[in-house]
Structures are given as C-alpha cells and as structure tokens.
Amino acid sequence: MYRRLSAALPHRRSRAARGLAVTVVSAVLATLCLLPTSSATQNSATFQSDESPAAAQEQVLTWTADDSTTEYASAPTTATAGPATLVFENSTDTGNTTGMPHTLTFDTSNPDYNQDVDVDILASPSDSNGGRYEVDVVLSPGEYRYFCDIPGHGQMEGVLVVTDDGGEDTTPPDVSAEVSGDQNDDGDYVGAATVTLAATDTDSGVDTVEYQIDDMGFEPYTEPVTVDEPGDHSVQYRATDNAGNTSDTGTVSFTVVEPDPGDTTPPDVSADVSGDQNSDGDYVGAATVTLTATDTDSGIDTIEYNLDNAGFEPYTDPITIDEPGDHTVEYRATDNAGNTSDVKSVIVTIVEPDPGDTTPPDVSAEVSGDQNDDGDYVGAATVTLTATDTDSGIDTIEYNLDNAGFQPYTDPITIDEPGDHTVEYRATDNAGNTSDVKSVIVTIVEPDPGDTTPPDVSAEVSGDQNSDGDYVGSATVTLTATDTDSGIDTIEYDLDSTGFEPYTDPVTVDEPGDHTVEYRATDNAGNTSDVKSVIVTIVEPDPGECSDTRDTVIIGSIDTTVENADVGDGCTINDLIDEDGEYANHGQFVKHVRDVTKELMKEGIVSGSEKGRIMSAAARSDIGK
Q1: Statement to judge: residues 400 and 472 lie in one domain
Q2: How far apart, in whole angstroms, are the C-alpha atoms of residue 537 and residue 571?
Q3: Residue 557 phi/psi, 5° resolution?
Q4: Coil, helix or strand for 94?
Q5: For residues 65 and 105, what is the distance between their CA atoms, to the nearest angstrom?
Q6: What is the CATH number of the domain that holds 434?
Q7: What whole-number distance in Å separates Cα of residue 346 and Cα of residue 328?
Q8: Number of domains in the chain
Q9: pLDDT digits (tens, 9 = 90+) for 374-410
Q10: E strands within 315-418?
C-alpha cells in the first residue's frame, strides 16, 4: 500500500492575501499493477493562489518517469536560485506503459544538501491528473538531492545544483595539491611520494578533478596518487565545475630517490610489557605488549608480531593479552631498505585475579595541627587517612564527619569548627571487602584571645671600643625578642631613619659617625612592642694602630696574593679586614669583609677579581667559627 504524498513550501512567505498550497492526494493503491485501473482511487491536485497566470514562474524544471525503476527518464541538473516551477510527469506520454507509480521526493533530512524545499509528489498514469503535477517553489544556492520514495525504486535519484541568481556561474573551481612522504635532507622523497588533490567550488560545485604525471595525459582523479619511480616528476592537475568552468592547470614538481643502497643494517626492535604483576611476576588479568623499532639509516617500514604462532601480522597498536596462561609474542621489524631484524620473543603469563581475597584493607587516621597542653587542636586540625591492601588493592576510602554520612576521601580533611568532632572512616578493596568502621575524636579550640602583652625586645652592641666607648672601625648590633604567650612573629629595625625592615641577622655598622638603630618586635597575636633605640658611634682606627705591613692580603692561613695596599692614614687592607677582631659568628666576619672590599672597590684600591679572591679566602677561613 502507498501512503499519501504531498508537496509543501514551509519557507514561502505566509501572508493572508498571498499563499500557495499544493496537495497531491493518493488513495490507497493496491499491490503494484495487480488491480485494474478502474479499481484504484483517483489522485487529485488542488492549486490555490491569488496570483494570475501571468505571474507564473519564469524558470520551469521538469522531471519525467517511465517504466524504469533505476532512473528518471529525464531530470534537470542545474538551476538558478529564486522562484521556479517544478513539473513531475509520469504518464504514457513519458513512456510509462505499465501504470507504475513513481514519486519525486526532495531529501530534507540529509545535512549535506539544502533542506528548505519540501517536495513529495506521487504520480501515476492512471490518476486524475494523468500523472502530471506542477508546484511552485523558491530555490536557494546549493545542492538538492531528489529520489523516488517507492520501495524498490531507490536507485532513482539525483542532485540538482542551484547557482546564485546573480547570473551564470563563470568562476572556475579552486584546486590544490599536497605532496607527502619521507624526505631526505635535500627535500627529495625517499622511495615514493603521494600527491593528494583537493578542489572546491562555491557556485555550481565540483564536477571532475583530473591529473597527469609527466605529461602522460590527463585522467580522472579518484584517490591520492603514488609516484615511486626514481627521478624528477611533474604532476599537473585541474578541476571542472558543474557549470563547465575549468581551472587553470596547476603543477607540482618533486624528486623521488631510491633508499640508500648502503643500508644493510636491520632495525633495532624491542618489546615492553606492562600491567599489574603479582609476586611471581605474572600479570594479573591482562598485560599490554608495546613494540618499538628504530633505524638510523633508511627508517622503519613495518613492525610485525606473532601471538602464539597465529602468524605474523602488522603491528599498529599495543597488544593486549587477557587470556589466562602462557603466551609467546614474537616480533620483528623491517626498514625501508628491506632489511629485517632477527625475530625476538617475549613470554607473558596471565593469571586470573586471586578470587580468594576475603581480607579487608587496613585503614588508619593521622591527626595533625597545633595542640595546646590539653591535647586540643588550636584553630584547626587535619585528618589524613591511609589504607593498604596487599591482595587486590584499594578501591575506595570513605569518611563520615559528625554523622553527616559517608563520602569518598580524596584529600586530607580540615576541621576548624570549635568543639568535639568524630571522624569515622573505612576502606574497600578491589575484591569488595570493606574494613570495619574506625573513628577518631578531634577537639578544636579557638586560639587564646587573652594575649595582649607585647614582646620583650633588646639590643646588644659588640665590637672594638676605644677609651671613649666609641667603636673602632665597625660595630655589630644583635637584636633579641621573647614572648611567652603567642610567640614572636617579626623583629624589625630602622638604621638612621631609613625605614623599618625585617631583622634576620646581626646589623653591622661601619660608617664613621653617630648612628641610631631603632627596633621593635611583634608577636603572633599582633601585639607590637614600643620602639626602642641604641646609639652607636663609629670612629676610624688610630693610624698608630695600623701595623699590618705584610706584602699580600692574608686571611687566617690563606694567602689571596692580592697586594696589601696602603688605604690611607698608614693602614693597609689587612688592617681594615682585622682578622683578629671579635665577631659573633663566621657569617658576621664574612659580611664585614664584604663591606670592606666593597668600599675598596669604590675607591679603586682593589679590582673586581681581587675582591673575589679576598671574599673567597674569608669564606673558607675559620674566623668567627
């Protein structure tokens, strides 16, 4: 039985005073050609339009059908975008002598074709229209696929190419060529080159693509062209669209060379087996064999493998083996010069997962954070869960905080709400065994809000002093702070009103003159001490005290070979370094030497390399230790 078919125009303008409706109504047809014509319900076509005959479409496209079930008797191939009248005739006049029905159906479900015209006409020589129907449509640029919807008539199909109504398509297609293959350092293709052609046409579409190799004559292009004859080659190509426009002929030239005949070395090939292993080295459940081959001469052509003597076959992806038992994988590789490696092999044993795992995992919890004397956690605590299973391995770890319900454990749990908290936890292994639920109780208390006392901070000045109490050459200020409640957060100092900065090491003052060092400390509760200060007076060494006249700068037992030059006032570099002075630690001495040599460089007394040698000797010495 055949269904009712119709032609509709869902994209026409819809106004009350203007419209077009076409309906082709088909009654139920009996089995094809088995009932007399008189017994079939007649078809009828109804056209409703306020357009006069003079407004008929200028473009008429006609399809005809006959007794064939494989093709239409005639059909248009091209059209112009815009209004058009579609005519479908399946009658005795078009060659239908059997009364066979056909349809003209436009495909509206294939995204590769236009879908804006919905035409579905059933016509038969015996219907009330004599098998001839017309319908007005509006065509858009692109391609429409049409076909016969009668079962068994599926080969009756075609494509209507619609070009823009701006005029005839006179633009040829765009066509391009891409050459691929293995290239040597000269850009020649080793062994073979493949030429891939691509053509596009936005108007009527591409009809044919053609090519010729080395002027041997054009032939249709259907798939990439492989050229493997050694020598220089030229491939010409062109494309023609459905409007008959042919592109200019393009040319691509390249050279094919034979693989280096000197390559007689077979490739190196290896196998890597991966997967979960038990204590015997067997693979549990499955194993993956990955093959790798290298060839530094002509390169790898193929890798092959043979699993359990089933025969060699090309290797393209890692090989998965999951059948329990012993398996042998043989493998080999061949390079582009035809050299094949010796066959190697690897034996892989697959065992089923141990079905006897009935032991649940071990799971534990560790709580960390700052604790007070009562063992409570101040501010927050972190609970870290750990699970182990030596049989099937861990599947999941779960926790339940304060009876809120178990949830997956992925990261350590932070608890910062003051009060008592209970963390329950459990683990499940890959065999489905779940541990007993364990728990840990954590008490969180707020930090002591009663710390309002600032830290105690003091300063100690050290160095060589003269009889006036002034410091000769330099002085070192060491700051110390204590806080018995929340502890020290920072110590800061300000030298000669240059601004407070963090105190990390004793402060060395070596510039002659009076200096003021202000200092303060802040505890972890935010309390800051009052600013205190100490005044330090630095004087230059008495020239009479300078007595080091050694030829070179010597620090400890290390001779720097740098000249022990006179720096003025009868003093030498060794006098300024003052290795016999008092230093709180080795670092203080090294800093003192750095400050001295920095000034000597500014004054041009020592060079950069000499400064480096002196600093190296100071660092290596034991002074201040």
Answers
A1: no
A2: 20
A3: -105, 10
A4: helix
A5: 13
A6: 2.60.40.10
A7: 6
A8: 6
A9: 999 988 999 999 999 998 899 999 999 999 999 999 9
A10: 319-321, 325-335, 344-351, 362-368, 377-378, 381-388, 394-401, 407-408, 413-415
